[in-house]
TrEMBL record:
This is HTH tetR-type domain-containing protein. PANTHER family: HTH-TYPE TRANSCRIPTIONAL REGULATOR BETI (PTHR30055:SF234), HTH-TYPE TRANSCRIPTIONAL REGULATOR RUTR (PTHR30055). Keywords: DNA-binding, Transcription, Transcription regulation. SUPFAM superfamilies: Homeodomain-like.
Amino acid sequence: MDLLMLDRPQRTRGRPALNAVEAVDEDKLLGLAFATFAERGYEGTTLRDLSKRLGVSHNLLNVRFGRKEDLWIRAVDWRMAQASPFVEAAFDEPADPEVRLRHLIQRFCLWATNNGDIVSLTNVEGCRSTWRLDHIVEHFVLPFQRRLDGLLDAVRLQRPVHGLSTAALMALLVQGVGYYFCAVPMQERLGAGREVDDIHAAEHADRLAAFLLAALLPPVA
């Protein structure tokens, strides 16, 4: 036996070397995983298919993330950590509550133009009672709802606010405004494709925000 072979690190057949596992860019991997879960659903996504799309071995994903359930959680947490701060920054602005609420709605509508993958995932997962929905609600939806409730309560101390529940308001924002920008093929078939293209989406996000705010905050007598 070649003595040089004795100095080489040995690994189990069929499993990637540690440096191979570390070499895959995690943002790329999690981004593709999230996009696939959003497009195909949890049941329609397999680690084997993801590994082919990434050009890596199936075992590499197993070593890096373990079960498909673990990869789903990692991908969702990673994507939400990317997307949430843009909207939630409005909660912490040093401004009047009504101003913060207006900025929050405006930011959410603009957010919807760039995060169709999150809208797609919540549309799919929100219609079934699963551990995945529990994770989304517990870690992202309920914390946001509590902050929104607090902000609306602060606004109500100053002026009238429409008695819409925060659950209904969030549905209008995500499944309403979000779907409008997410379902581009639908809008194109309805003759509204120009409203949701890259050039005009921000303009129409402002219009939708103004529409919602006019309904939520009636004129003060």
